[in-house]
Amino acid sequence: MAGHVVPxxxxxxxxxxxRIGAKEFMCVGAKPPYDHPHVFLDMGSDDEIVCPYxxxxxxxxxxxxxxxxxxxxxxxxxxxAA
Length: 82
Description:
Elements: E1 8-9, E2 17-20, E3 24-29, E4 35-42, E5 48-50, E6 57-60, E7 69-70
Parallel strand pairs: 1-3, 2-6
Antiparallel strand pairs: 2-7, 3-4, 5-6
C-alpha cells in the first residue's frame, strides 16, 4: 500500500461514489490544502459507507485489491514525516 497500513482515500475529483478494495480506511476529503479531518471509516458487514464530512459514498468492490479504487487515482499517499 501507500506507506501506511490503513489505506487513505481522497475525492479531489468530486465524484459521488468511489469503489474501493478495503472495508477499513481513512477518508481525507480532497487533497490538501482542501482536505477535511482524516476520519477512519469501517464498513463492518456492510458494503458501503458515507463519509460524514464530505458525503462521498464509498462502496466495497471485491474485484479490487486493498488500495485500488474506481475511478482510479483516489489513493492518497500520506507524505513521510521529516
